[in-house]
Amino acid sequence: DIKGFVFDLDGVITDTAQFHTKAWSKLADQLGVQWSTELQNGLKGLSRMDSLELILKTGNKENDYSQAEKEKLATQKNNLYLQFVQTITPADIFPGIKEFLDELNQHGYLMSIASASKNAPTVLDKLELTDYFEHVVDPKTLKRGKPDPEIFIKAAEIIGLKPEQCIGLEDATAGIAGINAANEVSLGVGSPDVLTEADMVFEDTNKITLANIEANMNK
Ligand code: G6P
Ligand code: MG
């Protein structure tokens, strides 16, 4: 029986995926790396340093920078991202998500955050959702990033559940892969053409309700 929900944050609860994309594509430009939808989708869910490595690898530049230089580039991206984050208000929560969180609370489901982002607490704060998520996996404690299942297993653990008792929500292919490998039910938020491995996909966040999820579970 499902007893909990494990949420990714960026691209699931609010459109911060858009801000990550803006900041990374600016850096890619600066580094002379060709941007593409494929790269954009591949970056989703990856940790900050894994993202930078993928961008450099895409441009065959993985050996062009020292560790210190890479850290500088990642900090530069993060500073721009944080400027965008400052503009976030509760009105930026995706349609229907707040209602879904209330529905989960009313039915006694447990919930936690499985975001690779070190900025997740700041974003939750700007959205005024901190009270909903007492349990947030600290990405600093992870040995491996998404698509590894570690973060999703931890997100179940911190709410006292087994992975099989959880549904994981993700907008990233790397995230869906992690949820599936963790043995949780995967709920994709986005295009079914991209999130092909998800157990169910919702393009419209307004449609994410317990009734619609149950209908999909019985398929
Ligand atoms: C999330 C986003 C990624 C981002 C990562 C790290 O998983 O989907 O796009 O790179 O978090 O975020 P951070 O805020 O720590 O740089
Ligand atoms: Mg995401």
TrEMBL record:
Q: Spell out the SUPFAM superfamilies in the cross-references.
A: HAD-like (SSF56784)
* UniProt keyword terms in alphabetical order: Carbohydrate metabolism, Isomerase, Magnesium, Metal-binding, Phosphoprotein
Cofactor(s) for this protein? Mg(2+)
Instruction: Read off the Pfam families from this record.
Output: Hydrolase (PF00702)
Q: Broadest EC class?
A: isomerase
Q: What is its EC number?
A: 5.4.2.6
Q: Which reaction does it catalyse?
A: beta-D-glucose 1-phosphate = beta-D-glucose 6-phosphate
Q: Which CDD domains match?
A: HAD_BPGM
Q: Does the keyword Metal-binding apply?
A: yes
Entries under NCBIfam families matching the protein: bPGM, HAD-SF-IA-v3, PGMB-YQAB-SF
Question: According to its UniProt record, which protein family does this protein belong to?
Answer: Belongs to the HAD-like hydrolase superfamily. CbbY/CbbZ/Gph/YieH family.
- How is this protein named in the record? Beta-phosphoglucomutase
Question: Which species?
Answer: Paucilactobacillus hokkaidonensis
